[in-house]
């Protein structure tokens, strides 16, 4: 079964558009004709959905859903409208499943959970909370804000890393070009001269040998493979509380990564509090979908402590949470304005992390350029030093 996007003209209702499931284009036109719709255009929806499209799809989709509910649409009409604006077959199938679930009296969370490529388990859990509490529009609004914040952080990180990575890539290609194309030319010249070479030149000339170049390529390939394996295993490392705690202890990057994961969880915690979910249940919910195993353990500990009568600040006192957040939690509990205090403290932590990130990213390109310049200087000095010595000998 395939999905098609169509635009047509109805005898009574005028211009219309939507999506329809059919075995082929001819069957789709036949079905629309039976509904007294004369098709003007018919196009097959793309089947696969990429990661980038999925990230861009969710905020807009949830915002439309929230807007329709706030405008007074019931769930059936809202999802029919969402289905008419689908851009991929995956979206159309998800909308069809939700409409089928609504007809059968099932929950929306269960219906969208069968489409993990579009809706993450974390999102399904929050939709379930919104349905259970009757505050689905408020939950959707909070989810949209949270996704926008995460996308903005991701964009800032990509923008900050773009220039250093470009510099590193160009520098790497330059060095490889010198090793594989420039060194062999100078090696031929020195072989014809039959003179003793300086030690630095002898060392650099080792790179011209096929055996050495083969080892160099093998080393680069091994580094790339090691990076790929580490990236593939990264979610497993982060999901382990013990391993994650060790990662957080690494200099520079450890504390930054810890705070980034904490900010993600705080967004979820603020969303739960704004949705009128009790604090103990909010911590339990955040712990189920925490950004790392370490913080998952901390939120679960906080939930257990709250159920035993401890204060929120006491349950998190031994964690890696910044002092400004612990002070805000304590002040919020005493004043009854926990949500307000957490929001202000989270902004301060975000500003501090952004400043730290900008400082590192400003220095990183300079360090890369310095390192590359030193390597190029050594290579050029090794290549031209024998020629200078030869020139002095001729004189």
From TrEMBL:
GO terms for biological process: protein secretion. It is found in: Cell inner membrane; Cell membrane. Its main location: membrane. It is a multi-pass membrane protein. It comes from the Bacteria. Residues 61-184, 267-386 form the Type II secretion system protein GspF domain. GO terms for cellular component: plasma membrane. PROSITE patterns: T2SP_F. Keywords: Cell membrane, Membrane, Transmembrane, Transmembrane helix, Transport. The chain crosses the membrane at residues 161-183, 216-234, 363-385. Pfam families: T2SSF. Signal peptide: none annotated. Belongs to the GSP F family. Component of the type II secretion system inner membrane complex required for the energy-dependent secretion of extracellular factors such as proteases and toxins from the periplasm. This is General secretion pathway protein F.
């Amino acid at each position: 079964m395939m999905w098609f996007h169509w635009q047509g003209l109805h005898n009574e209702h005028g211009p219309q558009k939507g999506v329809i499931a059919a075995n082929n284009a001819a069957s789709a036109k036949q079905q629309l004709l039976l509904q007294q719709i004369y098709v003007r255009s018919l196009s097959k929806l793309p089947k696969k959905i990429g990661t980038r499209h999925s990230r861009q799809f969710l905020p807009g989709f949830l915002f439309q859903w929230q807007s329709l509910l706030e405008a007074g649409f019931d769930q059936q009409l809202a999802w029919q409208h969402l289905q008419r604006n689908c851009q991929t077959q995956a979206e159309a199938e998800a909308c069809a499943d939700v409409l089928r679930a609504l007809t059968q009296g099932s929950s929306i969370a269960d219906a969208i959970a069968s489409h993990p490529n579009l809706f993450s388990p974390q999102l399904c859990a929050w939709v379930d909370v919104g349905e259970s509490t009757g505050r689905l529009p408020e939950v959707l609004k909070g989810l949209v804000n949270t996704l926008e914040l995460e996308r903005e952080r991701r964009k800032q990180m990509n923008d900050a890393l773009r220039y250093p990575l470009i510099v590193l890539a160009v520098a790497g290609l330059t060095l490889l070009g010198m090793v594989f194309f420039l060194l062999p030319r100078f090696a031929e010249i020195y072989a014809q001269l039959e003179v003793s070479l300086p030690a630095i030149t002898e060392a650099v000339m080792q790179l011209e040998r096929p055996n050495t170049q083969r080892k160099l390529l093998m080393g680069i390939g091994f580094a790339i493979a090691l990076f790929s394996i580490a990236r593939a295993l990264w979610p497993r490392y982060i999901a382990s509380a013990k391993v994650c705690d060790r990662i957080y202890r690494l200099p520079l990057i450890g504390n930054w990564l810890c705070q980034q994961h904490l900010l993600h969880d705080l967004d979820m915690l603020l969303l739960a509090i704004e949705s009128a979910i009790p604090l103990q249940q909010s911590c339990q919910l955040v712990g189920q979908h925490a950004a790392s195993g370490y913080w998952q353990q901390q939120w679960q500990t906080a939930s257990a402590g709250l159920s035993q009568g401890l204060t929120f600040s006491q349950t998190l006192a031994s964690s890696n949470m910044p002092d400004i957040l612990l002070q805000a939690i304590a002040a919020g509990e005493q004043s009854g304005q926990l949500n307000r205090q957490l929001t202000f403290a989270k902004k301060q932590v975000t500003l501090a992390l952004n400043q730290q990130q900008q400082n590192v990213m400003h220095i990183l390109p300079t360090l890369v350029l310095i390192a590359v310049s030193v390597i190029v200087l050594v290579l050029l000095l090794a290549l031209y030093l024998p020629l200078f010595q030869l020139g002095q000998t001729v004189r």
